[in-house]
Prior knowledge:
The structure holds 2 protein chains of 2 kinds.
Chain A (H helix, E strand, L loop, with lengths): L7 E5 L4 H12 L3 E6 L14 H12 L5 E5 L5 H15 L4 E4 L14 H29 L2 E6 L12 H21 L4 E8 L10 H8 L6 H11 L11 H11 L10 E4 L16
Parallel strand pairs in A: 1-2, 1-4, 2-3, 4-5, 5-6, 6-7
Chain B lengths: L7 E5 L4 H12 L3 E6 L14 H13 L4 E5 L5 H15 L4 E4 L14 H29 L3 E6 L12 H21 L4 E8 L10 H7 L8 H9 L11 H12 L10 E4 L6
Parallel strand pairs in B: 1-2, 1-4, 2-3, 4-5, 5-6, 6-7
Helix pairs in contact in B: 1-2, 1-8, 3-4, 4-5, 6-7
Keywords (chain B): NAD, Oxidoreductase
GO molecular function (chain B): oxidoreductase activity
Protein name (chain B): Oxidoreductase
Amino acid sequence: MGLLDGKVALITGAARGQGRSHAVTCAREGAEVIVTDIARQLPTVPYQMATSGDLAETVDQVKAHGKVALALETDVRDQSDLDETVQRGIAEFGKIDILIANAGIWTQAPFWELTDQQWEEMIGVNLTGVWKSAKAVAPHMIERQTGSIVITSSTNGLEPGLNYAHYVSAKHGVIGLMKNIALELAPHGVRCNAISPGAIKTPMTDHQAAWDMFAGHEGGTEADMIEGGYHFHALKGATFLDPQVIADTALYLNSDLAATVTGVTIPVDAGHLLLTGVNAEPVK
Amino acid sequence: MGRVEGKVAFVTGAARGQGRSHALRLAHEGADIIAVDTTAKVDSVPYPLATAEDLAETVRQVEATGRRIIAVDADVRDVAALTKAVDHGVAEFGRLDIVLANAGISSPAPTLEMSEQTWQDMIDINLTGVWKTLKVSVPHIISGGRGGAVVITSSLAAIYANENTAHYSAAKAGLVMLMKIMAKELAPHRIRVNTVHPTTVATEMILNDATYRLFRPDLDSPTRADFEEAARTLNRLPVAALEPSDISNAVLYLVSDEGCYVTGATHVIDAGGAL
Lengths: 284, 275
């Protein structure tokens, strides 16, 4: 018996990374899934974004658990795309119990050098995209007087990070959004919570620009990033974490185990937030 | 296969209420239990404390799950008694993986009017008692070398201010920093430490006249229904008081592999009350 038997989950950004882990974990625990991804490149993103082939691989992994996946190429910046996704999901499975608003991008630049396009794409996907995703499912959840929404924030939803002010702004923003969704949907028996992942190894974080950031210079390697991961976390043996650890916490939040939990943010960060900072490069 | 199969958990305040519920939930998920509660009197507490019969009932219910339990009458204020209980349990079961520092009291009173004894009993049990609980038990987790998990029961009262709970809130807020510092100190051993912050839970600590009056100062002799009317306004989800099992579910998540990278976190279980 699974923790999500008979449920239907909608997961955005599900072609790979954390989104794929969410989809496969939901299926393993008994849910049917609707998986969406933009499955194309955005102009400001320096790493290879997911493809249609990636989304198909998620569908195959869901099928391996004996569950059906409805896969749709959906841009979370496009409300009509999302509304259609929800309508098709309900037509296919009869209902939607769970939304995991996971789709996100990560780009870097000092805030004064961010281009308008970098800012707009980041806020459009990582903040406004979450609002639009929740907006698309809310009337249905209100009508059924049940539902659970999990929003992917970040430790950068709670603290700043050098050279990605737009990401930090969006991730802080979704925590406020989460609390308001939780507040406004509580009278309808619908819950909403956030997860703040630490350093998770996915295609969004494992690429040359990230390696360089952890190395502190150009020409960084994946080994530099893995070494940086140990410094980022407090728990013994914890470098960049598997996406499964985020899916495990979403599973808890979406299951009946968390039936009275709403409006909370759970850091899944191997103790990162416990670490007090030092100035690694002081200007004297 | 349970979610804490083969593990051993030490639970304080296990005779009834949330403590019994935690012990049972973990036993159902495959853990053996070392349980303590006390029959010592605490004069400043305005409701009946747990009895030896209550602890015996926890033993009966845990054994009915097929798991083992060692239950000892030990007060969290008494390091010698706690040490003896934990050492005995670990000798018997061979390991320790999980500690649930749950024992606590409630004794509402106006801050400037409460007696020194009322203040001191509260700090001794709800704050220092947790430190003593961890001091005698966590070294067993460390020496096992397998990592582990500690959950400390704090409260929504650590985050939100209410009249007549200064000593309780001070103790519960103190637990948050105790938790964070222990989480940091124990991270190198792969031992995770978190707090849970329940809203009102329907246990004997809450379902009594003193608490009813705390919630309904407007009435001379408030009933449970009067209390529930006020308690319901604290929560956003439509519920007056949570059940102990609601908190046990969160504890289970935090101590199981699903929570294996969650440490230093304050987990609110409050039906949206904090919103």
